[in-house]
Amino acid sequence: QYATTGCSLTLHHTEKPKHEAICEYRPYSCPCPGTSCDWEGSLEAVMSHLMHAHKSITTLQGEDIIFLATDINLPGAVDWVMMQSCFGHHFMLVLKKQEKCEGHQQFFATVLLIGTRKQAENFQYRLELHGSCHRLTWEASPCSIHDGVAVAIRSSNCLVFDTATAHLFADNGNLGINVTISTC
């Protein structure tokens, strides 16, 4: 199905649906969480789409930045999104607050590469929360935007913390997360 966009595999019809679900050449969906954006397109068009359709997303340059999530006490499910550009690639930083069970809210922080799964294997990211006497750190390889935030959360490939922990590190309802991207 994706031969016109670069897939060169020829498979038996019984293997085709399984491959198409994970094929790197299938169209990319809009990776922006918390929106009902139906956009689909090539990997090369993702950043252009984000810059034009989701203008509220800030992009910072450099391997080491601070991702500031403001108003973390907002009720309900909330997503904070920022872009980080380094090593010739763009990374989507996501902090997601959602209810896990009966009033118990959790925060999920992760990094997605605007790129393929194979490209994502070349990078590591580190998320750090700093407090006066506390530090919380998570290190992992980013997921590709082909997988998305939901897959990162489902597979626990993210920093997970509860509301009490968020308040421990927050300053006036704002949470600063140090984000460092490195190559493997």
TrEMBL record:
Family matches, as Gene3D superfamilies: Apoptosis, Tumor Necrosis Factor Receptor Associated Protein 2, Chain A, Classic Zinc Finger
Biological pathway: Protein modification; protein ubiquitination
Any one GO biological process: proteasome-mediated ubiquitin-dependent protein catabolic process
Annotated catalysed reactions: S-ubiquitinyl-[E2 ubiquitin-conjugating enzyme]-L-cysteine + [acceptor protein]-L-lysine = [E2 ubiquitin-conjugating enzyme]-L-cysteine + N(6)-ubiquitinyl-[acceptor protein]-L-lysine
GO cellular component, one term: cytoplasm
GO function terms (MF aspect): ligase activity; ubiquitin conjugating enzyme binding; ubiquitin protein ligase activity; zinc ion binding
Domain (SIAH-type) ranges: 1-55
EC numbers, comma separated: 2.3.2.27
Keywords, ordered alphabetically: Ligase, Metal-binding, Transferase, Ubl conjugation pathway, Zinc, Zinc-finger
Zinc-finger found in the keyword field: yes
InterPro entries: 7-in-absentia-prot_TRAF-dom, SINA-like_animal, TRAF-like, Znf_SIAH
PROSITE patterns per UniProt: ZF_SIAH
Function of the protein: E3 ubiquitin-protein ligase that mediates ubiquitination and subsequent proteasomal degradation of target proteins. E3 ubiquitin ligases accept ubiquitin from an E2 ubiquitin-conjugating enzyme in the form of a thioester and then directly transfers the ubiquitin to targeted substrates.
Family listed: Belongs to the SINA (Seven in absentia) family.
PANTHER family (UniProt xref): E3 UBIQUITIN-PROTEIN LIGASE SIAH2 (PTHR45877)
Domains as described in the record: The SBD domain (substrate-binding domain) mediates the interaction with substrate proteins. It is related to the TRAF family.
Full protein name: E3 ubiquitin-protein ligase
Organism: Illadopsis cleaveri
